[in-house]
Amino acid sequence: MLSERERERYKRQILLFGEEGQERLKRAHIFIAGAGGLGSPIAIYLAVAGVGTITIVDMDVVDQSNLNRQILHSDRDVGKKKTVSALEKLREYNADITVNAVDTTITAENIRELVGRADGIVDAMDNYPVRYLLNRVAVEKKIPFFHGAIRGFYGQATTILPGKTPCLECIFPKAPPKEVFPVVGATPGVIGTVQATEVIKYLTGQGSLLEGRLFIWDGLTSTSEEIAVCRNPSCPACGTETAAHKTTGKKK
Amino acid sequence: MSVKVRFFARFRELLGTDIMTELKVGTTLAALVSGIAKKNREGYDAIFDEQGSFREFVILMRNGKRVETADAGKTAVADGDEIAVFPPVAGG
C-alpha cells in the first residue's frame, strides 16, 4: 500500500501507470552496476521514481575528473568513496526508499551474491569484461539486463530479456580495446535516462521495451536510430546449444 | 550497382557516414568496406588489423542482418544494400 505522502509525491506519474504501477515500483529491487557517468542519472531517476530498493555497486573514489559527468558526485565529494557520496545524494533525493551502496569490485566470485534476488540489473559499467559477467548472471538468473554504453557524443542501449531477446554476447561477442574514453556529461545523461525509462516501463508494464533493438544515439548530429539485433544460437552465454550442454552437465 | 555504407561511433568520426558507392557486380563486403576505409589511414586502422582482416570486435550488418566478419570476404553485396559498420561502445 502507498502512504498518503507517497500518493502525493508520485502524483504526476500515478497519472501514467496508476497506484498499481507505483506499488510495483515500490516492491521492486534494482541492481545498478556502477555509480559513474551512467550510474548517476540511472540511480537518481530510479530513486525519485520510487523504486523501493536500489543496490548500487562501485569500488572507486570520486576524482575531480569525474565531475563533468558523474552527477551523483560534486566538488565536496572529491576523495570520498563513490558509494558514500551516492548514498548521501540518493537519500537526499528520496528518503522513502532503501538504498544499498556496496563498495566492492564486481567479480565472477561475488556477482551472484551481489545481485541476489534483484528484479533487474542495470549496466552502468565502463568495460566489457564486467558487462559480460553481468550478462551471464542475468541469463543464469533469468532477470532482465538493461545495457547502456557511451563514448564522446555517442551512445547505445538495449534491453535484454533472457530467453527472449539476444543477450549482450549475441550482439557484441568481442570487447573493443580499452581506452580512456572521451565524454561530455550530457551523453551518459541521454543514455542513462533511456535505461532508467526502460526499467520503469519494465516494472510497470508500460509501452514496448528495446527488445531485440539496439538504440543508437549520435549527439553530434542529434539523431537516433535503431538496429535490429538477433539471437545467436551458438552464443556462449545464452545459445540454445550451450544451454543444452549446461543442463546435461547438471544431470551428470 | 549502388550500395550505402553507414559507419557508427568512432568509425563515423573518422570516415563519415551514409556513403553511397557505385560498385562492380560481385564486389565483396570486405572489399567494399576496406575500399572506403582506405581513404583515411586512422579510419582503416580502427577497423582492420595489420593483416588487413577485420578487427575482432567490429560489427557488420547487411540490411539489418549480422554478417560475421570472417565471412565478409566471400559475401557479395547486391544493388541497394545498406551496410552498417560499428564498434561496441564501452564507456559508462
Task: Characterise the protein shown here.
- The complex is a heterodimer of chains A (252) and B (92).
- Chain A has helices spanning 4-9, 11-27, 39-49, 82-93, 111-115, 128-141, 168-171, 186-204, 240-251, and strands spanning 29-33, 53-58, 98-103, 120-123, 145-151, 154-160, 213-218, 223-228.
- Chain A has 252 residues and is an alpha/beta fold.
- Chain A has an eight-stranded mixed sheet with strand order 3-2-1-4-5-6-7-8, with helices on both faces.
- In chain A, helix 3 (39-49) runs parallel beside helix 4 and helix 3 (39-49) runs parallel beside helix 8 (186-204).
- Chain B has 92 residues and is of the alpha+beta class.
- Chain B has a single domain, classed as Ubiquitin-like (UB roll) (Roll), CATH 3.10.20.
- Chain B is built from three helices and five strands.
- Chain B has helices at 9-15, 29-37, 41-47, and strands at 2-7, 19-22, 59-62, 65-67, 82-86.
- In chain B, helix 1 packs antiparallel against helix 3.
- At the A-B interface, strand 5 and strand 6 of A face helix 1 of B.
CATH topology of chain A: Rossmann fold
> Can you list the strand order of the major beta sheet of chain A?
3-2-1-4-5-6-7-8
Shape of chain A: globular
Q: How many runs of DSSP E, i.e. beta strands of chain A?
A: 8
Q: What general outline of chain B do the C-alpha atoms trace?
A: globular
Write down the CATH topology of chain B.
Ubiquitin-like (UB roll)
| Proportion of strand residues of chain A | 15-25%
How many structural domains can be distinguished in the coordinates of chain B? 1
Structural class based on helices, strands and sheet pairing of chain A: alpha/beta
Largest interface: pair, residues per side: A-B, 37 and 20 residues
Quaternary structure classification: heterodimer
Return Rg of chain A in Å: 18 Å
SSE run of chain A = HHEHEHEHEHEEHHEEH
CATH 2nd-level architecture of chain B: Roll
| SSE ordering of chain B | EHEHHEEE
